[in-house]
## 1
Amino acid sequence: MASTSLRPMATSLAKYPIPIELIAALYRANEGEFGRLVSTMPEYGRARIAAYCTERERLQPLALKLASTCEEATLIKAAGAEAGADLFAQSRAGLGH
């Protein structure tokens, strides 16, 4: 996932800060906890966090996990056209979607 096309537009992320505590909780969560945490989040919020996580190598698995819970249009809105489409495709690779 080292592609530069996966970089979201920084201006969109700066407008809506993402609490680091939420990212840490998602990162550490087991499957059940992860499901509980994301079930209360709006899809656009999940997409924004996924876009943010693509910029940090160690958070890329979390980015894909979150992106797999989002529609392609939402990821495109959150990360930009190319990055959102790439994130959507990569999150579904090998999952049979």
Note: The helical segments are 10-15, 20-28, 31-39, 43-53, 60-67, 72-79, 81-92.
## 2
Amino acid sequence: MRWLAALLVLALVGGCTTATPDPVVVTVLAGSELADLEPVLADLRRDTGVELKLDYRGTVRASEELAAGTGHDLAWLATNRYLRLRGADVPLSTSTMLSPLVLGVKAGRADGLRGGSWADVAARAAAGELRFAMADPRVAGSGLAALIGVATAAAGTGAALRTEDVACDKLQGFLTGRVVGADGAAEVAEEYVRRQDEVDAVVGYESTVLSLNASGRLREPLDVVYPRDGIVLSDYPLMLLEPGKRAVYDRVVDWLRTPSAQKSIMERTLRRPVDASLERVAQLRGPVGTALYFPATQDVVDSLLAAYDRAGQPATVVFVLDHSTSMEGPRIAGLREAFATLGLGGGFDRFRVGETVVLVRFAGTVLEERSVTVRGEADLAELSRALGSAGLAGHTAIFSALDHAYRLAGGGTVVLMTDGENNAGMSADDLLAAWPAPPRTYAIRFGEADPAELARVALAAGGRVVDATSGSLLEAVREIRGCR
């Protein structure tokens, strides 16, 4: 009877053994930064029998492919928001982990940025004091999230970006600091490591920055900076593309959201768990800060990318500044204040490294011409002081001064600021006859300046007139300077 008892025990043991799930391979269109999940995916394969074959892309580029149709079974990107913006049907999606868009700044360069805003970042970049690596926003979600953060903060509406809120000149100062680029979040991290002696910071996901610090490959650690005016948060949804793979999808999602898998993801990749009750590693115990509203339409993203394509390049702006005697008093004081603020006042609108600023002062004739190419704080200080002691003179030769400025502008922009009517030198007709295709011209009008005559010249030059008679001269200058 002993042999019968032994057989019974074996039968009972065999009945309690969980069968190994059938092995299956599924293809996944994945964000390039998810390559760091390979150890986690090995555990997934061991526990569930599912092997995920990841095909890497930048999130923005992958979203374009998904909208057009792809042969993958699943998709796993930083976000599905870009897919939504394209009007595509968003497949079944489940968030798997979290990581905000941040700046990793060398500890020795982070003073003034800890607890700072996107405006502080843009000002430092414009002054040449912050050189950073950032992924291409046309390809990578991290790069586009940075543009959304900067543009939303610059708009100052407290709401989701609209197309009319996107201005190239608001992004220009920030993008002046982008000196290292790459297609994706993972690739830009590698570029940062390779060129870390040349740059001060990297713009990327929190997980990227923390992983760089933990890698032992940095000569100087990075402080994580969460801009106080908001960040874009990625939730890494796993998306079901092939309905016939639903059972496998459920098996993978269920495993990824178990406490043990969430803990493994957190410890190995330094992304935040979706389970808020899970105890976090030390680096992730702080808050992520304020989340920004995401744009509601693809038109906004298209506007951001168009602004990105125009921004970041050296530019010339010629300011044609009325110094006739009618400017005496509050008007010349306002002009000096505007230039002092653009020189050293900070924010999104200051003069930036690489920009050439030409000042043409005029009254009845051109009084002075001064050109400054910004290379650092000394040049910004010079521009800030440039009009401090400039004298005034009689008469107002607006169109002769513009003729002089056009000879200096090259491919740049001309900004005229005047409070009077033309009473000397060339007429508007003379100017337009001499310059049938003038450089782009904007006119800021205040005082008694003739709006119709200024508009005729500005419109012929592809610009417009801004009326500052009842508003801030500084705001008028901010409205029209930059890349157009």
Note: The first helix runs from residue 2 to 16.
## 3
Amino acid sequence: MTSKADEALGYEQARDELIEVVRRLEAGGTSLEESLALWERGEELAKVCRRWLEGARARLDAALAEEAQEAETKPSE
């Protein structure tokens, strides 16, 4: 479950933290418990990023649909 603090993260913040989590996991040298905690944190950060990207996609789709609708209703010259 995503926390309130995670919901307040911007896309770039979540992405940067996710990059750091992946870097630490790939570097190794962590205990199993720490690796699991990092993996769980990475999953949460990925969800935050996914929500931001889905929101951006919805906004783009709405803007494109509005533009197309305006083009259809515009009188021909």
Note: The two ends are 55 Å apart (CA to CA).
